[in-house]
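Page 42, continued from yesterday. The earlier attempt failed because a stray header line got pasted into the input along with the sequence. Redoing it now with the clean sequence only.
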Amino acid sequence: MRRGAARSALRWAPLGLALAWSAVVLATGVGTEAWQPGYDLAVYRDGAADLLAGRDPYARTTGRGHFFVYPPVAAVLFLPLLLVPPGAGLLLWDALLVLALVAGGRRLLRAAGAPAALVPAALALVVVSDPFREALVLGQVSPLVVLALVGGTALARRSPGVGGALTGAAAAVKVTPALVLLLAAARPWRSFALRVALAGAALTAVGALAAPASWRSYFLDLLWRSGRVAPAGTTSNNSLAGALAHAGVPAGAAAPAGTAAGLVLVAAVLVVLLRRARADELADGPAGARAPGAGEALRWGLVVSLLSCLVSPVTWSHHALAAPLAAVALAAASSSGAVRAVALAALVPWLLPVLQWAAAAGGAGTAAGVLTALTRPLSALVLVGLLLPRGRGGPGGAAVTGGSRVAGSA
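This time it went through. Structure tokens are written below.
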């Protein structure tokens, strides 16, 4: 018994070390800039305070020229932040992020087919990844949005009501996760997509009731002005628009060109989705119209989250938690050595400060800066390719995709 307990403790040691390193980063500020600790959480607090006072949350500008960029319902959901002091609020927020990642990430990795023995090490890699580190430092909501989107989608068959509510909440808070509604193009997903739409619409309506003028301003104007957030050529932009700007496309053309490239990518993913649904229906008859098992649904959730990062005009590192999560899931679950190797290679840019290196190399003005800045968008594209299904389902609702056997239930 003691030997088993020792093995179990040793198995979880990498995660413990990763969390300890995160605590060191937060306590000392190593690897961060002086303005970063709690910066985004303070923006959330200000947005909630403005909403509570009857002011427009979008009228305030931070000292660094940033704005509250979420729909009004997000300001409503951030109101509890006003109940605690800012310093304590950041600690509690980061504790929530860690708890959500460890508890939710563990279930998602198991649903992906990762062996239990590899889950702690896989989670440790996600914890030390740049997207999660940045989220902890800034006090970002993005990890919760990604986990809600991916986890909710994974529940499409097992608990469609809960899954639809989680995914709908992610879409209502961040908007780009609403891309998950594209899954409705395939018949097996339509019931789930309806639940997502209803949940998202209900939460969006709460924002409209709480701040009708701000709601109209956001959805009719501010949402469509990506330049208000940052120019596409910002070195830290991980989207397709950012990739094109880094590659030398003029600033004014990079955003629309990125949107066009994103539409092509979305269309390609839809073709794969429809072909998969058609193949299942032909093979299984009416049973093929049922929502996919948790493993395959999880993969579609990760695909949607990565797509939302690629097609958005501006994608910061903390938006892309799905990238390291997908990479470790593929590496841990795959039975193919080639898939494992490619997934681990795709993980590397999310573990290293490649965007800082790109800036130090001269950004878009130098070949080294361009190539370094392109590593993350290229990694996201590779991960989408690895996640897309390429095989028929196995016994018990399992799906063999990309060389891995994915469990059919969580």
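Notes: The first strand starts at residue 399 and ends at 401.
Reminder to self: strip header lines before submitting.
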